[in-house]
Each structure stands twice: as structure tokens, then as C-alpha cells.
Amino acid sequence: MNTSLFQQERQKYIPKLPNILKKDFKNISLVYGENTEAIQDRQALKEFFKNTYGLPIVSFAEGKSNLSFSKALNIGIILSGGPAPGGHNVISGVFDAIKKFNPNSKLFGFKGGPLGLLENDKIELTESLVNSYRNTGGFDIVSSGRTKIETEEHYNKALFVAKENNLNAIIIIGGDDSNTNAAILAEYFKKKGENIQVIGVPKTIDADLKNDHIEISFGFDSATKIYSQMIGDLCRDAMSTKKYWHFVKLMGRSASHVALECALKTHPNICIVSEEVLAKKKTLSEIVDEMVFVILKRSLNGDNFGIVIVPEGVIEFIPEVKSLMVELCNIFDKNENEFKGLNIEGMREVFVAKLSDYMKEVYLSLPLFIQFELVNSILERDPHGNFNVSRVPTEKLFIEMVQSRLSDMKKRGEYKGSFIPVDHFFGYEGRSAFPSNFDSDYCYSLGYNAVVLILNGLTGYMSCIKKLNSKPTDWIAGGVPLTMLMNMEERYGVQKPVIKKALVDLEGRPFKEFVENRDKWALNNLYLYPGPLQYFGSSEIVDEITETLKFELLK
């Protein structure tokens, strides 16, 4: 494997573990908390997860253990969904833990995500292979995939492959949908009387997989530092040239955590928070009005430049557009045969003919390129039923609507400034980066901790590391039942159990800090320039945590 000098140096980094996980496994005792309940829809979930619902939260403490295993382990591992910095360190943590327990233990990586499990397409992750991927970004050690395990045939195949490989446990590294897969698989194995454990690991740069016990999903720290550097560079460019308005769309299909974190790091002139849009029932026109107001006020000060941050999924949070997308989706699902063989223009005509009067008005008010991309986003829903909102160039939609509004104002003599917009989408640049020290430590701990959960005979749990605003040695290790994170949601017209996405809390400290400052940031040039993600140097810089965690875990 070819390696750069940086990679060679980075592989020398030794991730830190919580003190409790450094101990001999025989001296780590399992502490049970109270039995848990799901977030909502408890009766329906209790019926669905008859064997794994209501498990207690667990933690680890020093003391005599009651290990369920004495012989070598065979563990299967799956990388599921989009990449996030630190995935390889989860694998490193798992590998080191099982080898410490018994040097004859084996770790198998299923290639291409859940599909690899269904097709028994795997490789053994050996010491030399794992060592070559330590502290690196990406998921390329075995690659990832988005296959959903959801049918009886899938469950039977997964069970057959697990038994064929004599697996004691499967670890699924993924986001909310992937960990829902983990919960369903754990329940199925239990129902069949098979002692094959399933443990989930919280991954997503969007940070929409978190709660009181999962303080952050891995990858968020590294990705937001990378995006913030690029936004900071644009801030500096805007200050240098004093003539461009940079519209930056950021990853965040269902939540605005990435946008909010980058705003706290860089102080842009405008940042949309999707959850606020929904809570205040803002229309598309109202959002544009707010942007135009800031642009106009800045132009009166001679500042014909600025930075606008737009979350990737904001279009689904605008009530009128969300209703439109739901209606478009229902039309397609109920009339699928009518769309066969049609090009995008033909499909659009069918939609226009079948939309209700008000939704037709909303749809036709959008620029034509957005109309087409909404159709594409419905056609390209992923296996979990999610719209492909990244297809919708929301930043370009806002540019066009702002430009149109300013042009009308200029004709009426109400605007004398200049507006030169530049659009950007920062997404994939952050997903497979070298993980920060935080993500390197956090991911290694999550993987190592997952093995300790397995050794204690647990299944249907998510690996959980808490107190993340303290030193890694002081972090608290444990596990949270996957069913505790769930609710029922409609997917393709059917109610299904799904881990509920964690949206930005409008009463939370990070958002309140943003609200307190955004008016000052809007009209003044108070940009911050975070610079590149640091890997070497003083602990104050290389071990810095996100602004989100600082505020959320503030004592």
C-alpha cells in the first residue's frame, strides 16, 4: 500500500482510551441501570422487538467481571452508509481488543456494507492490514454500502452467513438507518434462539444520531473542522476582494448541526438553520426576504460581499416545499406505470397535471432547474426511503431568487449595490478525511468498547462513550439499548421502526449562542479564520473539541 509521508507519521499516533477500558477484561465489571423505554410509539415497538425491547443502559466500572466468553472470538464488522472520518479507527479498536482477549480471535470485514453480509463477501482483517489503515480517513479497508436488511429472506441469509463463519457477533458501524438494521438483526437472531450478538456504533458527520447518552456521532468533529477552514478561507477572500457573495451549501440532509457548528466557528453573515425554518413556518419567499435585507443593509455600508451558509436539506423543512415533495412522492408511488419510459420533461408534465391546485402553484413558482431536480430527488430515493436532497442545488435556488429580487429593487431605485454570487457545495471533501485527534481517540474507544459489550454477552446495544468534553482518559464507557432511540415512521407507505433523527434543539445552548450573535455577524465583518485541521502541535490546538460539544456539555 502506497503511503504519503503524512500518512506514515499519522499512523504512529496512538489513540487514547478511557481509563476503565485499559484494565484487564477480568477487572471490568458491568453495571446495569434501569430498564429503558423508547422515545415514542412504545407499544408498537414493544410488539416489534419482543426479545430486545426495554433493556437497561449499562456502564463499566472497576471490579470483578462475569465474562460470557473464554475462547477465541470471531467477529464480523460492517461499514454502512456514507463514510465518516474515524471508521478505520473503530476497526482498529475492535481488532486490538479481541486480540488482547485472545490472540487467536479473528475479525472479518464484510465488503461493500450490509450487502457483503448477505453475499458472504468478506476478508479477514489481519494485523498488517489493520495497521496500514490506523488513523486514516475513508472506509476503503472493506468499503461501505447502503443495502437495507429488511426482508425475511435477508434475515435468513444474514443468519446463515453468520453461522457459516462461526461468528460470535456482528458490529455495524453506521447512522440512524444502519443502526436500525442492527437493532432488527439483533431481534431476529434472538427470536431464532441464536446466540449471535449485534452491536451498533454511532457514525454520521451530520450529527443527527445523538441524545443524552450518545453525545455526538463520530466524524462530525473532523468534517466540520475541514468545512470551517474552507468557509474561513472564503471569508478571507471576501474581505480581500470585497465583491463576492459566497453561498455555501453544507452536508446535513435532515439536520443543521453541521451548518450551525461551522457558523459558530466562522461567524458568517447569514446562516439558515432548517429547524428554525420549520418551527417558524417560514415560506421560501420569507427566507429570501431575510437574505435580501442583509445584503441591502451591507451594501449601504459599502460592503457588497458576504458569506451565506445553507444546510443541504433545508428545502425539506420549508413547509410549503415539504408538502409539495410529499405530494409529488405520493403521485409517483400511486401512478408509477405512467412514468415508465418518460424523460424528465415528460415526468414533469405528468406531475403538473396531477398536483392539487395550490401545490401546482408552488411547484411552478420554482425555477425550472429546481422543478427538474425535485423530480430527480424523488426518483433517486435511497433504500431507506430518503429523498436525494443533495441533488437539489438549494444554494443556486437562493442565488436566483435573491438576484431576481435585487434586480426588481434596482429598477425601482431601492438598491444601488452590486451582487456577484458564487456557489459552493462542501460535502464529500469532509467525509473521508484523516480523522482529528478527537475522532481518532473517540472511534478507537467506540470500537474497543463494542468488544467489551460483546464479552459481557450484550446484544441490541450501541457502543457509548460519554463525558466527551473531558480528557479521553476520563471518558465514561458503556452501552445504550438501540430500541431506546426509536420511534415508528412511515417509509414507502408502511410504518416501520426507525432510530429518530436528532435535530438542532432550538432551546439548546449552541443555537442560543448563534441567535445571540447572528445580527452582529450579519452587518459587521466579524469573521473568524479557523485554519486547517491540526494533527501535530500543542494539545490546546490538536485536541480541541467542537463548539457544539463545548456548549452542550457546559456545566
What this model shows, in words?
The structure is a single chain. Strand 3 (about 75-80), helix 4 and strand 4 (about 105-110) form a beta-alpha-beta unit. The chain contains 23 helices and 15 strands. It has helices at about 5-10, 20, 40-50, 85-100, 115-120, 125-135, 150-165, 175-190, 220-240, 255-265, 275-280, 285-300, 320-335, 335-340, 345-355, 355-365, 370-380, 395-410, 430, 435-455, 510-525, 540, 545-550; strands at about 30-35, 55-60, 75-80, 105-110, 120-125, 170-175, 195-200, 245-250, 270, 305-310, 420-425, 460-465, 475-480, 485-490, 495-500. It is globular, with a radius of gyration of 24 Å. The chain is of the alpha/beta class and about 550 residues long. Helix content is about 45%, strand content about 15%. It has a 9-stranded mixed β-sheet with strand order 1-2-13-12-7-6-3-4-5, with helices on both faces. It is an enzyme of class 2 (transferase). It holds the Pfam family PFK.
Sequence-ordered SSE layout with sheet pairings:
Elements: H1 5-10, H2 19-22, E1 28-35, H3 42-48, E2 56-62, E3 74-79, H4 87-101, E4 106-110, H5 114-118, E5 122-124, H6 127-133, H7 152-164, E6 169-174, H8 176-191, E7 197-202, H9 220-241, E8 245-250, H10 257-266, E9 270-271, H11 274-279, H12 284-300, E10 306-311, H13 319-334, H14 336-339, H15 344-354, H16 357-365, H17 368-379, H18 394-411, E11 421-426, H19 428-431, H20 437-455, E12 461-466, E13 476-481, E14 486-491, E15 494-499, H21 509-523, H22 539-542, H23 547-552
Parallel strand pairs: 3-4, 3-6, 6-7, 7-12, 8-10, 8-11, 9-10
Antiparallel strand pairs: 1-2, 2-13, 4-5, 12-13, 14-15
